């Protein structure tokens, strides 16, 4: 991992479960989400029980459990299709599992497709905004950038352990409660620094400041942190990567927002070309044009 764009992210950022799950196919006649009983913490649930969580979505118990939170304990619960309205869990991702496997033939088993699809509910506008072409272009752009960041979804954690103690900013009022060397790069966009773990955790409703290891142990959490950056952070750019793709600014602007301070404007054309080539390959897999403005 490099300190790249996260090192460039300033204090403005602060303003801002445990195993992957498989999304079930929608039932032939989906019931109303409101027809299921509300989830209760501490109540015992048997496998097959369906509840309505506080977000209005339905979840089915994959394993019996004593009322674990469906959005955190994802080994025990999986989203359940109901309605077709606001309470419906995330539907079909524009990238199929077969296409995902084609994109990442040598990926680390940690980076599961089910972990990715389980994370999509955190940012429902991702790859669902605009035309079918734009949706696929955004998905391809996101996956191309995370491929570049992780060597093809191979690396879960930063490889240069010498960097680990450097990602603690003690000037923050919350400090580094997990330890000075705990905030190294993890996940698809290699989240690093205590203030980024704090900001991402606050946005996602997960205590990543005190438990940064969740990002390397829970595939859905790892994917959610990448989607947090993609959908909410501008980094050294002027727009979020999500906005760049939805508003047709072009793939080049996603590079600028992720690592523009070290790659764009002629600083590292080989790295830019690597990202662009991967994006072009992924759009070809998805059967869409890559669009214009590919470089930064």
Automatic annotation (TrEMBL):
Transmembrane segments: none
Keywords: Disulfide bond, Hydrolase, Plant defense, Signal
InterPro entries referenced in this protein's UniProt entry, alphabetically: CBM5/12, CBM_sf_5/12, Glyco_hydro_19, Glyco_hydro_19_cat, Lysozyme-like_dom_sf, TAT_signal
Xref: PROSITE patterns: PROKAR_LIPOPROTEIN (PS51257), TAT (PS51318)
Keyword Ubl conjugation: no
Signal peptide (UniProt feature, chain positions): 1-30
Domain Chitin-binding type-3, residue spans: 36-80
UniProt-listed Pfam families: Glyco_hydro_19
Protein name per UniProt: Chitinase
